[in-house]
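job 3f2a | input accepted
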Amino acid sequence: MAKKVVQYNNISIRLACLSFAICETCCRYQVKLSAENEEIADWLIRLTHNQRNWGFGLCFLYLRNVKGFGWNHKNVYRIYRELELNLRIKPKKRLVREKPEALEVPEEINQVWSMDFMHDQLSNGRSYRLFNVLDDYNREGLCIDVDFSLPSARVTRTLDQIIEWRGKPQTIRCDNGPEYISHHLQNWAKKRDIEISYIQPGNPQQNECLCGTL
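job 3f2a | predicted structure (214 res):
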């Protein structure tokens, strides 16, 4: 503490020692490196230079178990710290996520539909999928199609069946799954003059009206 006061406040060592009631000799004392400490420092520098991903633990185990040195681990660690050989910890990169855009509230039926997949397993462990379609205006479930495989052709066939008795929607909202970004679905929507509205990547809550209802 006295050394820090001398360093940062530009006062004499004598005044700092009087303020903290410590011996001036103790404050001025500097550890003299012995031949053993110089050897430890030399080994640590060589190890960290050749093995850049080694920390203190691996260096000390190598010196103790492989080279057979009986040095005290506290002394080795003190020299390791004085040489500033500590591994630099890389800071975690924070992902910058875009703020979710506010969704438009439909004012009539068949204005906006939402569709999404759900997954589950049978008792024998085999997975199956559920294709769900919802009208966002009154939150009416229009279809739940269940099968082991639901490719884009099956999706468009199910949508055609709904349109036959329900009518055509203006917009269909969905995520960025492979079935929804396929050319087959895009061509199908273009022929029927239906807009495919994709949610923002990393914002599944924009389609939570579907997942939270079924």
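job 3f2a | Confidence is low (pLDDT under 50) at residues 209-214.
job 3f2a | closed
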